[in-house]
DNA sequence: ATTAGCACTCCCTTGTTTTGAGTGCTAACA
DNA sequence: TGTTAGCACTCAAAACAAGGGAGTGCTAAT
């Protein structure tokens, strides 16, 4: 995929790059005359025209209609992102003061991240909260609320807290509760959520087996709390930025994109896809049809994975028109990714 | 406000009503010829024209431009909603099978409510989660997670659970913790959140005064957990329905409305306003400028308050074009309001 | 009081023309 | 052989013109 098409001469590459960059700036189809001035190689428009005809044959650019200039195809953008674009890598680590302010709750930070990203790029953005299947259990406790209710509290790494009310038919004695708590803590402490299997729970039941009925019920509830995947939280911002780009502003497109942002389902798919992809910390670019979200077939989607610690991974992403400022977007995304990665270590919990 | 303008003859009212109903259906300015057929009173278009001229002078209708038909003004809609509209009250209680399915989590129910409402009406909808300032405390407990962390768990009426990790400098003895828990439970149990004032906390501090420093810190934290208003959760659905109405579909309007739905702040204001209004269980209609949310000055907003029990009130609302089907909307809203009101009693916690 | 009739207004649609940016091709050129 | 000037051609978009039609206000007749 990244292999350069050998049929492309140096000059064609320069011209293609010029076409794309010009189009990114203006959003207008770019013609041969414009290019003959724009490029450093001094060629007449006629020559450029010949080259452009070739580039069109090869599928990198096309005309929206006869007698119009050319615009990049998806294939063209792909080549640009993979090869042509100059990444200003060196700057990334040094420059850029923090985008995020501290905040004590993770949710706040993530919502803020989405906002910052949107205002920095003028595109629509999303940030998914980390899912924590590889997280470990730090503490577990059952307490009697009243005659018929027990509250179970579970603290995971990163100070994620889960809890639930468990309804019990009969009152449990203090003693039983104490034993149960002991048992749970000694057995489960330090284990990752993945490790706490149904088999393990079954063995616990046996060990605790005295009033098997109630206790069995309680343990089942505990297992459920631990395993129930909190449905993925996704924060969005700047959805209306898409109105800044005419190619996405018609009713049809706007409606599709915005509803994908409201009904979060599609974004969840996007996150899943991103997290599943092999090379983790890289920035991923989906151009047009490449996007896993069908509603975004006319957009480009750029995503990155961050890690709050201990396998708690989340995704940050930007959705905009295909003619998006890839350089800037990828740089900003990388910066934010770093900040989020860092946040857990430097500021474990305020 | 509800007083009928005495200058309006019976006939004018009929005509006005006809104009509005016709406009609600078609969305087109309605002219005198159309009306002379549409209305039961057999009048020629000329007569109707005279009446319409009067109605325009009185500010109930206006022309978008000379030589166009008339459309209702905000004042016209107001009159319609207050007086002209026929509410089919009787049906409400009997008919209508349940819109909501049971679900164990409140959030799910509310999200579903928003969805149902949107698909039933073809407008944009919002449902706010109840705020619980008048809720009472059922149970409170502090537990040691590790050397430096305590987790505080608080259970409120309706099984709302709040919790937080508290960082402590030094380890607290089991004994101290036990005493603290006793103290907290005996003092605070059954109190409403409003009642737990800073003064009360100060008195508690004195009573517990032994290791004043750490304990003071912990008690402050507890007070904070109790009082920190969970930021209002608002569920939305069908935002993109606004694209079905041309008068709201231009970039400008669409952008304003949609961003109000994304950045929830304005919706929160709307909820606050609704909840603050005196007559609680009534349906409220805001037409155009009447809306507390400035971004919705070209819309109509219809809201209702539901009560999950014990002063836990939330708001459901519909946002659409001024020419909205008020009857249907208000009826649907009322039905849903009843269902939500009932849900807590019939199905306290599944 | 109502209505028929008429002149007038103004938006909207439709068709026509003009403009201009851009292309492809051919022939001349270095 | 690669490059360029020149020219005819295309097509979208803008500008313009004309007609139709829905609607109004006013006047005069019923």
Overall mean pLDDT of chain A stands at 87
Kindly report the oligomeric state of this protein: homodimer
Low-confidence stretches of chain A: none
Strand order of the largest sheet of chain A: 7-3-10-9-8
Cα end-to-end separation of chain A: 45 Å
Most extensive interface between two protein chains, with residue counts:
A-B, 31 and 31 residues
Number of helical stretches of at least 4 residues of chain A: 13
User: What is the percent of helical residues of chain A?
Assistant: 40-55%
In short:
The structure is a homodimer of 350-residue chains. The first copy, chain A, has 350 residues and is α+β, with helices and mostly antiparallel strands.
Task: Describe the protein.
The structure is a homodimer of 350-residue chains. By secondary structure, the first copy, chain A, is of the alpha+beta class. In chain A, 46% of the residues lie in helices and 17% in strands. Chain A has a five-stranded antiparallel β-sheet with strand order 7-3-10-9-8, sandwiched between helices. In chain A, β1 and β2 form a beta hairpin. Chain A is elongated. The two termini of chain A are 45 Å apart. Chains A and B meet through β4, β5, β6 and α11 of A and β4, β5, β6 and α11 of B. Chain A binds a DNA duplex (30 and 30 nucleotides) through α3.
